[in-house]
Amino acid sequence: ISLLDLGALAWHSTDLNGEASGGEGNNFWAGDEDVGGYLDSWIQYLDTPSIYIGSDGNLSANIFYAIESPAGASSPGSCTDGWDAANIRISTDGGANWELLEDSSNPYHFECGYGWIWNDAEYETGGSLNHLASGWGGTTSNRWQDFDADLSEYAGQDVIVRFAFGSDPAYS
Fold first, then answer.
1. pTM of the entire structure?
2. 20 alpha carbon, distance to own chain's centre
3. pLDDT tens digit string along 139-165?
4. Continuous segment of H or E residues that includes residue 11
5. For residues 23 and 171, what is the distance between their CA atoms, to the nearest angstrom?
6. Does residue 128 have a pLDDT over 60?
7. How many angstroms separate the Cα of 63 from the Cα of each of 52, 125, 135, 137?
């Protein structure tokens, strides 16, 4: 049995920051409108439905984040080099396993976000999720920015794309 508490999900459609994307339509936000942002100790995922990838598959998305800066991030005995984190992942097996999607024009800011580690020690060095510990932090420099990933290596497969966010225990 799988039970999903929809009340615990922060991802929702909003027109927040819509002016930065030309004011056209809504976007998805992982935040709590009552507090004007996110809370401590969050792990939030927004998954696409299963998508079949053709021979010239590509993922393009406009992204905006305003989260804790990675500056000065460290934790004794940890690989931590970033605080709160966002990244984009892909699965070819219905969500059982994930890989990071990357855009060379928009690289992740750090390799080991404490926002992931705080919520699951498997993101730490040697853990089964460490390959997913990279992330962006701080604020996008141009408000909304393009993310573009080549999906040609997934041609002929069904995939799920996951937009992921993790926050550590403080300074949300």
1. 0.86
2. 20
3. 887 678 889 999 999 999 999 999 999
4. strand 11-14
5. 30
6. yes
7. 23, 28, 13, 12
